[in-house]
Design brief:
Elements: E1 2-6, E2 12-18, E3 26-32, E4 38-45, H1 52-56, H2 64-68, H3 76-91, H4 97-128, H5 133-139, H6 143-162, E5 171-172, E6 175-176, H7 182-187, H8 189-206, E7 221-224, E8 239-242, E9 247-249, H9 253-256, E10 257-260, E11 269-272, H10 283-290, H11 296-305, H12 316-336, E12 354-362, E13 365-373, E14 379-385, H13 387-402, H14 411-424, H15 429-432
Antiparallel strand pairs: 1-2, 2-3, 3-4, 5-6, 7-8, 8-9, 10-11, 12-13, 13-14
Length: about 450
């Protein structure tokens, strides 16, 4: 961590030049007037823009899942499933029912490994006054080791279904390139059941941590699952809902949400219309909206350890452990009943012109894709809105309210507390830096 708070009779500043224990490169800049008014609260992303949406134009439909997987090494599956769902909608492809469970299982694996990295290596240290997972391992014997084994199980499940743990290669528009081996899936059931017990044990430990109190009135937004708790991108009629009453098909996303470029960051801010309102997506939003859809063991754990509704982002580490438990519980259920290979494992694709949208719940929240396909089967246009872009305005709004509560602390501690708040969101910074507009001013010849 590199941060400081400057004391001045005129203006006070908090500058964290490089945030630690997050994915990607970002910084924090805060300026407070002498009367205590927060004039600036900027979570700046300074990674260079990545042009994935433009790179997809002109590509064959079959290439898209492998390309979008490269947007994120932590949650490539969510990108693949969102892309496949949108492209299948555009092409009129119907998935075989047996493929729905396999895609849900694949997303379970991603939730497990992604949440485990954040909880055990990036976030828990904040509640213990420590700097790294190595220090946690010394303070709480077995805690980090348990988390790493959970992550390993998630990665093994990704390998069985997707061909490899990072940037899986077996996901295809219409299904899978090769049918996953049912015996290999069933063989993981004991590990998945161990993972459920380990997640519940870890939640009981985390519940004893000392938590700051920072309640906020969040407008929660998420994809509504048609069954269960995970929205895995298999539903052709996936709907996006909010705690304020929004209920729209995924195809209407662009009519209600707008992305804007901000001067201080390469990351886009997505806001809810009307009014350009910041909103919350991710684990806390999902649990507030769909707690009653948790599988039984995860539901009991949530009721025991997480208030309802939960309006404090500092409690999000508990929520992620509830979701790890839910993913293990759902994965174990599917694995135990997996007795035959899906045949065929992929629906046929007939190139045609069309437009399709789809949304899934990545570990960090709602992920939306839209594709236009030309008559030759090539991608004519693409739009991708990642979860972090949707949470950036919410993070800055939280910082504006939070900073006055920590200004009385010693300078390094105030900066550390602001970093802690940002880490509660588990921002995937690289995903947000995908660029909105590009223009070149050239002299008239």
């Amino acid at each position: 961590m590199s941060g400081a708070v400057s004391r001045s009779t005129a203006v006070r500043r908090i500058d964290v030049r490089t945030l630690a224990r997050v994915e990607g490169s970002g910084s924090l800049r805060v300026r407070v007037a002498p009367d205590g008014t927060v004039e600036i609260a900027e979570f700046a992303i300074f990674e260079p823009p990545r042009f994935f949406e433009r790179l997809l134009v002109g590509r064959e439909v079959r290439e898209v899942p492998d390309i979008v997987a490269r947007i994120c090494g932590i949650c490539p599956v969510a990108y693949q499933l969102a892309a496949c769902g949108a492209l299948e909608a555009a092409l009129g492809v119907q998935l075989a029912p047996a493929l729905h469970d396999l895609r849900t299982l694949l997303l379970c694996a991603e939730w497990i490994q992604s949440h485990a990295v954040h909880v055990f290596l990036l976030h828990a240290a904040d509640y213990l006054g420590l700097e790294s997972g190595f220090e946690i391992a010394a303070r709480l014997p077995g805690f980090v080791e348990r988390g790493l084994r959970m992550k390993e199980i998630g990665c093994r499940l990704l390998e069985v279904l997707g061909g490899r743990a990072v940037h899986p290669v077996n996901v295809a528009v219409g299904g899978f390139h090769r049918a996953p081996d049912p015996s290999a899936i069933r063989s993981l059931a004991p590990d998945l059941e161990w993972g459920l017990a380990a997640a519940l044990e870890s939640l009981a430990i985390v519940a004893t941590f000392s938590f700051p109190s920072f309640p906020r009135d969040y407008e929660c937004v998420a994809v509504a699952p048609t069954s269960g708790y995970l929205a895995a991108g298999t539903e052709s009629d996936a709907r996006i809902v909010s705690s304020s009453g929004l209920d729209i098909p995924s195809g209407a996303f662009a009519a209600h949400f707008v992305e804007r470029q901000v001067p201080h960051s390469t990351g886009l801010h997505c806001l809810l219309e009307p009014g350009g309102r910041p909103y919350l997506t991710g684990p806390l939003a999902r649990l507030n909206l769909f707690r009653d859809r948790l599988p039984p063991a995860a539901r009991r754990a949530a009721d025991a350890h997480v208030p309802h509704p939960c309006r404090d982002m500092f409690q999000s580490i508990r929520v992620r452990l509830v979701e790890i438990a839910a993913a293990f519980e759902e994965a174990a259920r599917i694995a135990r009943t997996c007795h035959a290979a899906v045949a065929p494992c992929r629906s046929d694709i007939t190139p045609r012109a069309g437009t399709g949208c789809h949304a899934v719940e990545a570990p960090r929240g709602l992920l939306w894709h839209r594709y236009e396909i030309a008559a030759d089967g090539l991608v004519a246009a693409a739009a991708i809105v990642p979860p972090t872009s949707q949470n950036l305005a919410r993070i800055e709004s939280d910082l504006r309210a939070f900073v006055p509560t920590v200004l009385q602390l010693p300078e390094p501690e105030a900066a550390r507390c602001c970093e802690h708040l940002i880490r509660t969101y588990d921002p995937c910074i690289s995903c947000a830096a995908h660029f909105l507009t590009f223009s070149v001013d050239s002299p008239v010849r």
